[in-house]
Specification:
- The protein has about 130 residues and is mostly helical.
- Helices cover about 55% and strands about 0% of the residues.
- The protein binds zinc ion.
- Zinc ion binds next to α6.
- The site of zinc ion has 8 residues, from α6.
């Protein structure tokens, strides 16, 4: 993926992340401040090891957050940002092919191309537990 596209998705992911944190009323000022792109426009380091910082109260709040639906979404956003940093962003984890850019615009934390994703969903559907009364 082009650097320009990566920066676009990084901004998109950070924006989604910020909104999500706002929505759950959880603001990690230090993290937000350190994730902005620097003046040269280079991708700046992203703090993945947030658990290393913060107090016990923060940790409890995080534990609570990560148990929620929003928390899991946040986890996926963070994982996507991690992939941007390590260069694997936009690659399908099943077939290794490029994920369609329009799909990424709709679901920036997607880890699979649409073909593999729908295959997986069909598979999950076939394997669903049969309910017995
Ligand atoms: Zn695929």
């Amino acid at each position: 993926m082009k650097k320009k596209d990566l920066e676009y998705f990084k901004r998109l992911l950070l924006e989604k992340r910020r909104k999500l944190l706002e929505q759950v009323g959880y603001l990690e000022e230090r993290a937000l401040n350190s994730t902005t792109t620097d003046s040269s426009g280079e991708l700046s380091a992203y703090p993945f090891h947030m658990a290393d910082q913060g107090t016990d109260a923060d940790e409890r709040e995080k534990a609570f957050l990560f148990a929620s639906r929003e928390g899991r979404y946040l986890y996926h956003l963070d994982k996507a940002l991690e992939r941007i940093e390590n260069g694997s962003y936009g690659k399908c984890r099943a077939c290794g092919g490029d994920i369609n850019i329009e799909r990424l615009k709709a679901v920036p934390h997607a880890t699979m191309c649409i073909e593999c994703k729908s295959k997986e969903e069909q598979e999950a559907f076939r394997r669903r537990p049969i309910k017995r009364e």
